[in-house]
Fold:
Amino acid sequence: MPKGTDEGAARDSEVVSRFVEQFAAQLVEAGMPRMPARIFAALLASDSGALTSAELGEQLQVSPAAVSGAVRYLTQQHMVSREREPGSRRDLFRVHSNQWYEALANRDGILKRWENALNDGVASLGADTPAGRRMAETLAFFEFVELELHGMLERWRVHRASLFGK
Structure:
């Protein structure tokens, strides 16, 4: 069996498929593109947490190009990683147990860029104008979110260790 295959999985493939599509639909509703949502849900539902492009395509009945574009999006979002087994030419796509943490932690750079742009907006529009005040409030919100995110992620690390010992 290929390295990414869930060996010994005795689950009903219809049940797994139904879960994958239902969870993917929830991710799409939250704003994730459809194909990355399906790929992510399939990886999350696999016992190994890792599948090859061919396995993903077969499971989801999609083309290699669809898998490629979806995993590119997911790797950019830090939700999956691309690995290669030594001596193999096939990529293995893996979802890690802490993927949500990684995805949120990597938003820090985005928040900083938004804050910089909003600072420029306040300076350009004038802090005493209605638009400048709106920009300043938006900036204050993102600064608040950034501070809270750091604290929340630290609390999660402690909580996760208490639950899973990692």
Summary: The longest helix spans residues 130-164. Strands lie at 50-52, 81-84, 91-94. The chain has seven helices and three strands. Residues 107-164 form one domain.
